[in-house]
C-alpha cells in the first residue's frame, strides 16, 4: 500500500513538474515575442535569435499573425516560424531512439516500451502463430530503431511480414534457413534497406540475350509517413567482386516507387545487364533514395458548425479553412481547404496523401462518425480543397468537426549500401 502511495505521489510530482515547465516555456515565448517590437534593434535581433534557439518546442506557442501585428514583428515571426518548421520536419526524417534495460524482458514488455518511446507499433496479427514465450536480456541506450529491432527479432526467432498489419510492423516466426535480419540490411534515418531477390533470365531464341534484375525492399518506421519516393538510376553504383561495374539498364531513367497510404514497406526493382558467368556476386550496391514525406500531424477542431463560414485555424506550416457547412440533399457537406506554406510539390503529382487525411464528426455524446464519401473541390500548388459528405439526419447542433493533416512537407535524401549479394 505504501509503495502504491509513493508511486502515485511520484507521478503527481512529475506531472506538476511538467506543467510548470510548460507554463515557463509559454511565458518565455510570450516575453520574447514582445521583445520583437523593442525600441532597440539589438534587442529585437536578440529576441528573434532566442526564439529560434528554443527549437521546435516553441513553434506551437507563437502567436497568430493578423492585421494588428506590427510589420517588423510579422517579418521576424515569419522567419522564426520557417526555421522552426524546417527543424521539426527534419526531425521526422531521423531515426527514432530506443532505450531498454533488463535481464528478463518479455516480448510484450519490449513491444510496449518501443511503442511508448517511438510511436512505432509491433504487433502479432490475429489468427497468426502464437508468439514465443521468450525473455531477453536487453541493454540499449539511445539506440537507433531499426538495428535495435532487427537484433531483438533475430534473438527471438522472429521476423516482419511485409504484407501484414497496416501502420504497424506485423511480427511472425522466422522460417528455417532465413538469414539474420541484422546481417542483411542497412539503415538510414527511418528507412531500412534489404536486397530480397535477383531475377536472371535468358531468351533461348537468341544466345546472347540475357538479363537480370535486382529487387530491394524498402521499409520504414510505422510512425513515418512517406508521400512518394524516387530513385534516379544515375544515383546507383554496382560492382562485382573484382571491382568491375555492373551496368544498369537505362541509367538516365528515374523510378517512381509506389507508396500505399497504410503501408510500412515497398519494393524497388531495377534492371541490370547480366554480368559474365564468372561473376559470383554483387560485391556492392550503393545508392541514394529521394523521398517526399509528411511532417508532424496536427489536429484541427471546429465547433458551432451551423454558423461556419470560412473559419481559419493555423498550426505550424498549414492553415485549415472550414469553408462551408451545408445540407446537400440527403447528406451534410463539409468543405475544407488545407493551405500549406510550402508543399514541396507534394500537391502537384502526389496529392492522394491529402485525401487520406482523417476527417470526422463527433456527436454531442462523443461518438465519432466517419465521412462516407469525399470530392476534390480545388487543387493548387500549395493548397487543396475537399468536400466531405456525412449521412446524418437532423441538424448538427452540438457536433464537432475534426480534421487532421501533416503541417509540413519535407524532401530529403537517404543513402544505402549493401554488400555481398550472391548471384543465381
Tally of contiguous helical segments:
6
Please trace the helix and strand order, writing H or E for each element. HHHEHEEHEEEEEEEEEEEEEEHEEEEEE
Residue windows where pLDDT falls under 50 for at least 5 positions: 1-15
Mean pLDDT: 88
Helix content: 10-25%
The value of Rg in angstroms is 26 Å
- N-end to C-end Cα span: 65 Å
Task: Summarize the main sheet.
Answer: 5 strands, antiparallel
Strand content: 35-45%
- Shape assignment: globular
Q: Give me the oligomer status.
A: single chain
Class computed from helices, strands and strand pairing: alpha+beta
Kindly state the number of beta strands.
23
Short recap of the structure:
The chain has six helices and 23 strands. By secondary structure, it is of the alpha+beta class.
Task: Provide key terms for this protein.
424 residues, alpha+beta, five-stranded antiparallel sheet, 6 helices
What does this structure look like?
- The strands form 6 sheets. Strands 9, 10, 11, 13 and 23 form a 5-stranded antiparallel β-sheet that branches. A 5-stranded antiparallel β-sheet has the order 15-16-17-21-20, with no helix packed on it.
- Helix 1 packs antiparallel against helix 2 and helix 2 packs parallel to helix 3.
- The chain contains 6 helices and 23 strands.
- It is globular and about 75 Å long.
- 23% of the residues lie in helices and 41% in strands.
